[in-house]
Structures are given as structure tokens and as C-alpha cells.
Amino acid sequence: MKINRRKFLMATAATPAMIFTSRQVIATNQHRQELPIPELYEGEYKSGKVKFRLNVEHGEVEFFKGYKTSTLGYNGNYLGPTMKMKKGDQVSIEVNNHLAEDTTVHWHGMVLPAKMDGGPHQNIVQQGKWISEFKVIQKASTLFYHSHAHGQTGQQVYRGLAGLLLIEDDESEQADLPSEYGVDDIPVVIQDRDFDQNGQFNYVGFMPERMVGKHGKTLLINGAYSPLLNAKSTRLRLRLVNASNARFYNLGFNDGRSFQVVASEGGLLEHPIALKRLEMGPGERYEILVDLSDRKSVMLKSYRGVGNTAHGPMGMMGMDNDMDVLLINAESAEKRPTTPVETLTSHPDWMSMKPADVSRQLELQMGMMGMMRGMMNRMGMSGGMMSINGDSFDIDHINFSVRKNQFEVWRIGNNSPMVHPFHIHNTQFKVLSRDGRPAKPYEQGFKDTVIVNQNETVQVLVPTGPYSDTQSPYMYHCHILEHEDGGMMGQFVVKS
Ligand code: C2O
Ligand code: CU
Ligand code: CU
Predict the structure, then answer these.
(1) pTM exceeds 0.70
(2) Helix (H) or strand (E) run with residue 434 in it
């Protein structure tokens, strides 16, 4: 693993100027292509279990005509199939690692026993196999799965190791929402990439990219550059997934139309929230409804001014741009009534629950002095700079323990010079407040990842879940993958 990594770093060492030039050359000879929809994978029902099989493999994709990019994927070249499960299912997922390096597969957003979580402790060696079995006990929601290999998450996800995981339940199946996958219920996996002059992925090449996280100038949507969606219905549900390593998006339509947010990471909101702009950090998911009954073509765009490209010590020259995400053509869309839904679901009243009497303060930190030293000493690129409460991730050290079936208030503070999307495993929490003020209305549903702005403290109410295991920990971390790999991560166990 060590050897591979060094080779990778050397192969991708490039100057920013080179990345920029090569991208322009590649990007200009490109035609718009139909948005690919990842294949739906519902598994096979066998002896009381729903069985899935994922092969982690090498691939090759022609993102740009005439350029074959080396990639990684699950059961394919890039990304993976959309796994679909139903609440109550007992699932069994066999993962086979056909890579020449170790990997793991983490079910992001799933509440499940720690051994089945797919974090860095569930390492799958080269040519090895891992079986994850659990019961789906949570509400309908848009989850995803991705590599969580120790210290290697960033580069493995960048090369393609991510996929969607949808949970349905009786309520979601009966809800008045578009729900025909790939027809009016469309996954939109957003990733930014850089390519070199040979059309190969250009991962972290220079020091600032390790600090601010890898930002690419080219967007891939469901693994396609510059895609077009020919809408089949005038009422579309988009499952927006920020599967980028580090980039925040500020999504909206080019004609200023509003849309309705109907779900966050952990499932349906109680009521739809109308918005014109939606900010999404890495790891976050939102579902939106778009009304296309005017049959106009619209561009879903990301508007500059959010996340770490908008400010910060590095300036990120040329990185903070408006970007086209997805062109939607509604010319031949079938007209569907757009009766506004008023109530989507109701959430249990957690606010009246008595949280456990613990104080959980987590400070997200970037040691600037450590970084400067790192810049001067090119070999000292990792370790010590990214931390939580002063501790960089140590796979042999459990940071704390919680008791099962409790509600805990976690205070997440950020005095660093960057915005961090904070994620906790094995839970769908509620955001109680931002610096004492209420969370944004669309953030008041169930979430597993929350944006923590600079000089802000976010309080979340975390259900610790029904599973205990003092030997196997769960992770909490910044979902900027270079920060996670760099040590802005900790682990906790759940006691009975
Ligand atoms: Cu999506 Cu611990 O990660
Ligand atoms: Cu996770
Ligand atoms: Cu971070």
C-alpha cells in the first residue's frame, strides 16, 4: 500500500498551470451527452436475506472523446450500481476486492453494527473478500457507499469508488412523490475532477490541495461530463448527492425558478421547503422537486460564493466559478399535475427528549504552523495538521465511548480558516442550532453530515442507536476527504 501511494503521488505531481491548460484542451472538443443513470441493483432474495455482491475493480472510461481515463468502480468502470433496499430487509453484501491495493466499503448514513460499517477497521486486503450483514432499520432515504480505506479514502473515491444506496419504506412508497427510478426520480451524483494532458485523473499534486482539499475544474455528473437530461415528466425529483472530495456547491437554476427540498440525508422532511439556492457540502444529500410544466430548458448550476473556494488563506485562484451541473430539456416531458404536497411525514418529537448528561465538545482544527512546516519539508506532507480537539486520527486510539439508545448533544466548533462538513457514522441526527440560532429550515430533518462554518458552533442531537460493541468503533470526521485522510477524524465505541 505504501509503495502504491508513493507512485501515485509522483505520477500526479503537476503544476496548477498544467492542470488548467490540459483541461481546456480536453474540454473544448466535447459534445453534450445524455445523463447516465446508474443501474438499479435490488439484490437477490435467498434464504431470508437480500444478497448483494460488489466487485471492486479497475476500469477505463472515455469521459472525453479520444481519451481513456483509468478509473475504479463497483461492478463496472466508474462509480457503482444504485443499491436499493427496503426498511426491514435483512441484507448481506459480499464485497470482493480485485484492486492491487487494500480498500473498504462504507455504507454512509446507515445505522448498523460497527463491524458491518465498512470503516477503516473493516479493511479488505488485495484479492480479499468481506461480507457485511445487517438489518435495515431506518426510514426511506438516499444514502451512499464509498471507500473508507485508511489514509486512502480521498484518492480511491476520486478514482471512482462511490455509489448510491436507496432505502424505501411503506411511507415513501405511498408518498405523492415521483418515484420511478431513472424516469422521474433521478439520481444526480456531483463530482469535480481534474484531468492531465493524457486525460488521466489528476489527484492532489501540490501542497495547498492537501490543505484545502482537492478541487477540480471539471464536473462529472453520474460519471459524465456536460450531461443533458431529457425529462420524461414535468414533475421531477432529483436526488442530489455531493460526492466530491472537497467542493461545496450552491445549486440553483439559471432562470431563477424555485424548487422544493423534500428530503435530507436521513429521509423526508416534514414539509417541503421552497428555495432558489441550496448549499451542499461534501457528503450531504438533498432531494428536490422541480416543476417543469412550462416545458422550458433549464440549467442546474452551481453558483460561486460558498465553501472554501470563496475565501480562505489559499485564495484558490480561478477555483470559485459558476459551473454548469445539468442541462434539463423538458420539451417532450409528459405533463403531470403539480399539486403541492403540504405534509410529507412527521418526525418524532426529539426536542422533548432528555439528552444524556454528557458534554461532547469537538473542535475541528487545522494547525497552520504544522502546515507551513509541511510545505517547507515536502516529505512531511501528512500527519499532525488536521485534528479534532488537538488529536489527529490514530487508528489504535478510541477517542471516547457513548452508551447505546441515548440522545447526546454534540457541540461541533470550528475556529479553523475553512468550512468543514462534519459527518458521524451510525446515526441520523438533528441539527439543534448554529451559534445558538435555529438551523436553516431545510436542515431541520434527519442528517448525517452538517456544514460547520468558520467561527461557528453547531449543536446536533445524536441518537446513539441500538447496537453496542466495545471492540469496534464508528468514525466521526470532516467529509473533505483530504482532511479525513489528513487526520480530522476520530472514533467512538458504543457501550451497552
Ligand atoms: Cu461518507 Cu466516514 O464517511
Ligand atoms: Cu459515513
Ligand atoms: Cu475539513
Answers:
(1) yes
(2) strand 430-434
